Amino acid sequence: MNAIVIYRSKTGFTKRYAEWIAAALGCEALDWKDAQGKQLSGYDTLIYGGWFHAGSVMGLKKFLQVAEPLKKNLVVFATGASPAENPDNEAAMKKNFTTEQWGRIKAFYLPGGLNYEQMGAVNKAMMAAFRVMVKKQEGESSQMYQMLCKSYDLAEEKYIQPLVEHCNRL
Ligand SMILES: Cc1cc2nc3c(=O)[nH]c(=O)nc-3n(C[C@H](O)[C@H](O)[C@H](O)COP(=O)(O)O)c2cc1C
Q1: Candidates 17, 79, 122, 159: which one to mutate for ligand 1, based on the most atoms within 8 Å of Cβ?
Q2: Mean pLDDT of the chain
């Protein structure tokens, strides 16, 4: 299989997964910025990784605009703050695709975490507003609120396994 992993990452979780996936598949992982001008038509499989930002997978729409006309195998992964076992992960992912795309493009949720140290000011402010909302709705002692108050890291290499197995079957 001749694949490439293209990713967008702000605080490092998606980058880490992209590098694990690329190492497992023996291919290259490229930041979206460095992939501009790269000849993607030379690959059989294009793997895109982005991070959830208020429900949207960062950069996915743009990636699909470029990648879909190439008629390659497309695989998507997205990292977020929620744990792997959250039953809402699939529905959140599905919202980022049309019904037709969802039937054709395999997408995987990979748990990231929160890294306030690497977050920019705008994203920090958005998270602060989200925390205020969660505190109001669920209370200060709720698990959700407590989780949002500090950095945490849920990323583990084992989570890439289903994606890697899927790619190896293509
Ligand atoms: C402003 C903002 C909005 C976010 N929205 C979501 C979200 O809707 N769902 C989710 O699971 N995680 C959300 N997150 C958490 C990030 O998706 C998570 O930290 C991700 O792993 C970051 O990836 P990166 O380290 O590659 O930048 C949000 C984070 C920020 C800063």
Answers
A1: 79
A2: 96
